[in-house]
Design goal:
mainly alpha, 8 helices
């Protein structure tokens, strides 16, 4: 039965089993109730096993003890959840950083490979250009030239591995007519240079000497595309070069 503001004498053992934190708090409250400011010198389990009774604590303070215990448990769970979330976020960040580093390295390797290949193509084209056996100035000047003669000149001026590509472009541009003129644009010669006068950069006889035109066309293909075959690839994709 109730006596003043105290409850029936119930052993604190059951309450300690349900919440060790609550038992520790009980010890603290008992100390306060007795007027002592010192911390209890016995642990929670020992307290639960003595004669300390829940009935020794005022009813209002019992509720405070239970509330404090639940609050502490909730705080502990929140801290654990925050720690777990932080750990997951850090792990995800590390993984993303590693993935980004791998992707960056692959992109750099790809760019370096492309640059190396371009450099090798350019060097090969320059080497091939230098390997041409004859220059335009070594051919005797004639009043006119047949297609066969012009093609023979080109075979001696254009590297053998590039000749077919070179020939394909000339076939499409002028059908090997070194005096071909485009009535609409005025483009002129074997390569339909526009304007034709730009071929004067390699010889003043650009209008009448196919060897001069061949030299200009080969220089143009090597300079702009790297080689006649690279120029032919571009021509196939665009129908001009």
């Amino acid at each position: 039965m109730l006596e003043g503001n105290r409850v029936s004498r119930i052993s604190v053992r059951g309450f300690a089993v349900a919440s060790a934190t609550a038992v520790t708090a009980v010890g603290s409250v008992v100390g306060v109730a007795s007027g002592s400011t010192a911390q209890p010198s016995i642990d929670a389990e020992a307290t639960a096993s003595d004669s300390t009774l829940l009935a020794d604590i005022p009813a209002g303070q019992q509720a405070q003890v239970q509330t404090a215990s639940l609050t502490q448990q909730a705080d502990a769970q929140a801290i654990a959840a925050d720690a777990s979330a932080k750990k997951d976020a850090e792990e995800a960040a590390r993984k993303q950083a590693a993935d980004d580093a791998v992707a960056k390295q692959k992109a750099a390797e790809k760019a370096a490979k492309a640059e190396k290949e371009a450099k090798e193509r350019k060097e090969a084209a320059e080497k091939a250009s230098r390997s041409a056996t004859r220059d335009a100035t070594t051919f005797s000047v004639q009043s006119s030239y047949s297609v066969a003669q012009i093609q023979a000149m080109a075979r001696q001026m254009v590297p053998s591995g590039q000749f077919q590509c070179f020939s394909n472009i000339v076939n499409h541009e002028s059908s090997w007519n070194y005096k071909a003129v485009n009535a609409s644009s005025g483009a002129y010669g074997l390569f339909q240079a526009l304007p034709g006068s730009k071929m004067s950069s390699v010889g003043s006889d650009w209008q009448t000497n196919p060897a001069t035109q061949i030299k200009w066309g080969l220089n143009y293909m090597n300079g702009r595309y790297g080689s006649p075959c690279e120029a032919w690839s571009f021509w196939q994709a665009n129908s001009w070069y």
